[in-house]
Structure formats: structure tokens, C-alpha cells
Amino acid sequence: MTARAIITAAIMAIAMTAAAQKKAARPAKKTSTAQSIARQGFTDIADIDPTIHVSLMYARADNFTGRVLYGDLRQAFLHPMAAKALKEAQRILKKERPDLSIKVYDAARPMSIQQKMWDAVKNTGHSFYVSNPKNGGGLHNYGLAVDITLCTADGDTIPMGTKIDNMNSLSHIDKESELLKTGKISREAYANRQLLRKVMRAAGWKPLRTEWWHFNLRTRAQAKKYFKPLP
């Protein structure tokens, strides 16, 4: 191969690599459900901060219902105000721990999915973990709540003591000192939960007593008065 041919081949290889990287950097095409949610004024988290990891747990069967609830939905949406607040939480986290990231397991949730979740727990001892749609649902339905964890920059989750949507006292944040003392959660998991709440509170979010992974941006009364839920 001549020197000119070698140079030409190298240039083509660089161009192909750049094209592949550009294609990979493009956001995933929005499905019909995602497009519908976007049309209602909700923000795709990936559009406001692509460094936040997303892995919707109700798009898989390994959740408390044991089945897939989100058919074609893979993107996480929030009310624009909440999306901005989550971006701020990620900024605060990255400033303190550049090696870590927020990972979203659930965000805005259609009321139709809320009904399926309620049906799975009503008349059980776990019913208080899920908001009843007949009472207006919960803050997820308004895009004002998130279920999240911490992960490495590559997306690998770190110890938090339980899986997300674990429905027992191991998930209660007001029990953590006792859980640590009795060895039911590790010191590492305890510290990770503390860090998660620290950055979320600094960005304006409020934790839920019974779920270490759940954070609200507004109260339920405020949501019902000023915001519209996803149908």
C-alpha cells in the first residue's frame, strides 16, 4: 500500500469513527407513549441532563407487581420544574462525588399505571406503600416525585441496604440508626443513603419516611391544586 493510500484509509477510519460516535450520542427515539407524555408538557430527563442514568423498574418484571407495567416507555419524564431540581441534585452530587451519579428507577407515572399498582396491593398489608388513584393518586402522577438511587459513573448501583420498592421496615429512613446498629444494613449502605438525602434536600426535594429511594418536590395538596396528573 502506498503512503497516499495509507493516509486515505486512516482519514476514512477517523471519519467512520466520528460518525459512529455521533450516532451513539443521539438520544433514543421516543416511543408513542413518550411522545404523548412530552406533548403534555413533561420533560425527558435525558434532554435536560444526559449524565443522569435511567432504568425504569416498571418497564421490567422484577418489581413488586411481578410484571411489566410500562409497555413501550423507556424514558423518564418529570414536570419541568422537577426536572430542573433533579439536574441541580446531580450537579451537587457531582461536585462532592464525581465518581457517582443519580440513577432514576421511576419518575412521572400515568394514572392508568397507578391503578394497576394499587390493584396489586389493595386489601393487603402493603397498601399504604401505594397511593390510591381514587384519592388523586400520588406525586409520581404529577411528575413531582422520583424513585432514585446512587450509582457509579458507569451506571453500576452501589449498596443501599435494600432493593428499590422493598416493602418492609428495612426501607424506612427513620429506622436506619437501629438497622445499622443491629447489622441489618451495612455502614456503607447507611452512608450512601445519607449522601443521597443530603444532595436531594439541597436541591429542594423531600424524602419519604417509608422509602429511602422516594423524593417529593411538592406536597400532595399543592399538586392537586396547581398541577395536572398524567391520565
Description:
It contains 8 helices and 7 strands; from the N terminus they run ααβαββαβαβααββα. Mean pLDDT is 87; it is low at 5-27. Helices cover 40% and strands 13% of the residues. By secondary structure, it is α+β, with helices and mostly antiparallel strands. Strand 6 and strand 7 (211-216) form a beta hairpin. Strands 2-4-5-7-6 form a 5-stranded mixed β-sheet, with helices on one face.
N to C succession of SSEs: HHEHEEHEHEHHEEH
Instruction: Determine Rg (CA atoms, Å).
Output: 20 Å
Averaged pLDDT:
87
Strand order of the largest sheet: 2-4-5-7-6
General shape: globular
**Strand runs, count:** 7
Number of helices: 8
Q: How would a crystallographer describe the biggest sheet?
A: 5 strands, mixed
